[in-house]
From TrEMBL:
HAMAP family: UbiG. Keywords: Methyltransferase, S-adenosyl-L-methionine, Transferase, Ubiquinone, Ubiquinone biosynthesis. CDD domains: AdoMet_MTases. GO terms for biological process: methylation. This is Ubiquinone biosynthesis O-methyltransferase. The keyword Methyltransferase applies. It catalyses: a 3-demethylubiquinol + S-adenosyl-L-methionine = a ubiquinol + S-adenosyl-L-homocysteine + H(+); a 3-(all-trans-polyprenyl)benzene-1,2-diol + S-adenosyl-L-methionine = a 2-methoxy-6-(all-trans-polyprenyl)phenol + S-adenosyl-L-homocysteine + H(+). Its EC number is 2.1.1.222, 2.1.1.64. It comes from Polynucleobacter kasalickyi. O-methyltransferase that catalyzes the 2 O-methylation steps in the ubiquinone biosynthetic pathway.
Length: 234
């Protein structure tokens, strides 16, 4: 196990793109497109005003800003200093109050156990050597009764064809090399990580893309992208 639980090549890859994080026509267009869906799903499960919230793997702050604008007391953490600089600058430009910190989930959990009402970890688990460790850290950060949200990519032939071949090589929605199929995580595996961390998964939904209409939507099918909501018992 990588004791720091980071893949430097992954960090470097997203750091190189950092300046384009808030360009909605850039490589990050899909994140901007799915963000209202992610936020809407979170809002359907919990309230945000005054909720102490942490966004793990926040990158340039797309979800973090949305959470803060809904009234959450938001902290974003990431291991890319370049992405965090972009996030901080954009928060200043939009006058959004967010605390950003260059720190791993595991270290944050050691420093701030049972601190957060809401924990999000979206599109991040498939980019670290040990996703189980991140889930465990997220659970440690959450207060008893806290709500946690995770999203990642399923591992099967369909997800390989759609998320890598389709998105990266045919449609050019994402830069080539964005994803490593071997790091994709089956819902059954993520559910096991969640339960082993002492959490109770209570909902799951799929995130879908229609290339003909250029439209993203939520649905019950979790063959490719999916999100899981979990609760930390009181």
């Amino acid at each position: 196990m990588n004791t720091e639980n980071k893949d430097q090549a992954e960090i470097d890859k997203f750091s190189e793109l950092a300046s384009r994080w808030w360009d909605e026509t850039s490589e990050f267009k899909p994140l901007h497109a799915i963000n209202p869906l992610r936020l809407g799903w979170i809002l359907s499960k919990t309230s945000l005003p005054n909720m102490k919230t942490i966004d793990i793997g926040c990158g340039g702050g797309i979800l973090s800003e949305s959470l803060a604008k809904c009234g959450a007391d938001t902290t974003g953490i990431d291991l890319s200093s370049k992405a965090l600089k972009v996030a901080k600058l954009h928060a200043l430009e939009t006058q959004t109050s967010i605390q950003y910190e260059l720190i791993s989930a595991e270290e944050m959990a050691e420093k701030n156990p049972a601190t957060f009402d809401l924990v999000t970890c979206m599109e991040m688990l498939e980019h670290v050597p040990d996703p189980r460790s991140v889930v465990k850290a997220a659970a440690k950060m959450a207060k008893p009764g806290g709500i946690l949200f995770f999203s990642t990519l399923n591992r099967n032939l369909k997800s390989y064809l759609m998320a890598i071949i389709g998105a990266e090589y045919v449609l050019n929605i994402l830069p080539k090399g964005t994803h490593d199929y071997a790091k994709f995580i089956k819902p059954s595996e993520l559910s096991t990580y969640i339960r082993d961390a002492g959490l109770e998964p209570f909902d799951m939904t799929g995130l879908h893309f229609n290339p003909i209409t250029d439209h993203y939507y939520l649905g019950s099918n979790v063959d490719v992208n999916y999100m899981i909501a979990a609760r930390k018992p009181l």
